[in-house]
Amino acid sequence: MTASPTVLSALADGVLTLTLNRPDKLNSFNEDMHLAFREGIQRAHDDPAVRAVLLTGAGRGFCAGQDLGDRDPRKGGPAPDLGRTLETFYNPTLRLIRSLEKPVVCAVNGVAAGAGANIAFACDIVLAAKSAKFIQAFARIGLVPDAGGTWSLARTLGEPRAKALALTAEPLMAEKAADWGLIWKAVEDADLMTEAEALARSLAAGPTLGLGLTKRLIQQAATNSLDQQLDAERDCQQQAGRSADYAEGVTAFLEKRPARFSGK
Predict the structure, then answer these.
(1) What are the alphabetically sorted keywords of the record (predicted)?
(2) Can you give the pLDDT at residue 73?
(3) Count of beta carbons in the 10 Å neighbourhood of residue 242
(4) Which domains does the chain have, with CATH numbers?
(5) Which of 103, 107, 155, 209 suits a disulfide with 203, CB 3.0-4.6 Å?
(6) How confident is the model at residue 232, as a pLDDT?
(7) 10 Å Cβ neighbour count for 231?
(8) Residue 228: CA atoms inside 13 Å, Cβ hemisphere, count?
(9) Rounded mean pLDDT, 60-67
(10) Average per-residue pLDDT for the chain
(11) Is it the case that residue 1 has pLDDT exceeding 70?
C-alpha cells in the first residue's frame, strides 16, 4: 500500500482502492487531499491494470466536504473565492469520475456531508452503512450545493425532494436514501467493506470494456432523445461485439465454464 498523508491508495485484483484519510477532520478536503484524490482517479484512467475503483473513508466518517478551518471569517482578510475552489479542485475531479469508463464503487462508511455526499453520488454504485447519513449541509452556512449536487439530486430524486434536502439540510439516513433510489443499497455496518470489496472485485473481473460503454450510455440517456440513444446503443454495441471480451463471454457460455475477461 502506498500513501499520501491524505489519501491511501492500494491496487489488488484489478481494484484500485482509494481511502480518504483525514479521519480527525472527518475526511474533509484540503488542498493536498484534493490533489491526491484527483491523482488517484487519473491513475484509474491511465493504468490498464486498474479495472475498477473502490472509494471509501477512514475512521468514523466518509467525508464532511470542504475543510472550513482555513476559511474562518474571524481571521479577517478578503472573502474567499469559492468559485475558484470549485473550478480548480472539485469540478475537474468530478468530471474525471464521470468520464472514467470503468466502474466506480463507493462505500459510505459514515456521515457524508456537503461535497462529500455529492462526490459519493457521482460514483456508479453506492453502498452505505445503515448508520451512515447524507447531508446537504450548504444551507447551514449560506452556500449552494456544489460538486454536482444540484445535478445529481434533481435527476435522481426529482425537483421536490431535491429542493427539500438542499433547502433544509435535513440528514437523509442510508436506508431511506436506498428506498428513494439515491444509492444502490444500505447494508449492516459490519458488512459494508466486505460487500463493497466483493462487488468491486467482481466488476474488475468482468467485461470492463462493455461495462464502461454501459456507463457511458446510461449517463448520456438523461440528455439524449430516443433516436440519439438508439444510435448511441448501436455504435457501442458494434464496438462491444468486436471485442475480445464478447468472444470470450460467448465461448465460455458455450463451453459451460467461467469467462476470463481481459477488458479488451
Answers:
(1) Isomerase
(2) 74
(3) 10
(4) 2-204 (3.90.226.10), 208-255 (1.10.12)
(5) 103
(6) 97
(7) 12
(8) 9
(9) 95
(10) 95
(11) no
Mean pLDDT calculated for residue range 238-263: 96
Strands 133-135 and 172-173: antiparallel
User: Measuring CA to CA, which residue among 124, 118, 264 is closest to residue 199?
Assistant: 124
The amino acid present at 173, given as its one-letter code, is: M
- What mean pLDDT is predicted for residues 46-64? 97
Mean pLDDT, residues 125-148 taken together: 97
Report the alpha-carbon distance of residue 264 to residue 261 in Å, rounded: 8
Question: What is the pLDDT at residue 52?
Answer: 98
> Quick check: 2 pLDDT over 70?
no
Angle between helices 226-241 and 208-221 (to 10 degrees): 170
In order of 96, 127, 212, the CA distances from 90 in angstroms are 10, 22, 23
> pLDDT grade, residue 3 (50/70/90)?
low
Q: Which residue has the higher pLDDT, 245 or 75?
A: 245
CA distance 80 to 232: 42
DSSP string, 226-240: HHHHHHHHHHHHHHH
Sorting pLDDT into bands at 50, 70 and 90, what band is 77?
Answer: confident
Cell numbers given for 56: 471509501
Joined together, the cell numbers standing for residue 4 give 499520501
Residue of 33, 34, 30 lying closest to 70 (CA atoms): 30
Distance CA 224, CA 214 (A): 15
Longest dimension (CA), the chain: 71
The residues with which 15 forms a beta bridge, in sequence order, are 12, 52
Helix H, strand E, coil C: the string for 148-165 is CHHHHHHHHHCHHHHHHH
Q: How far is CA 182 from the centre of its chain?
A: 12
Kindly report the length of the chain.
264
CB atoms within 10 A of CB 133: 22
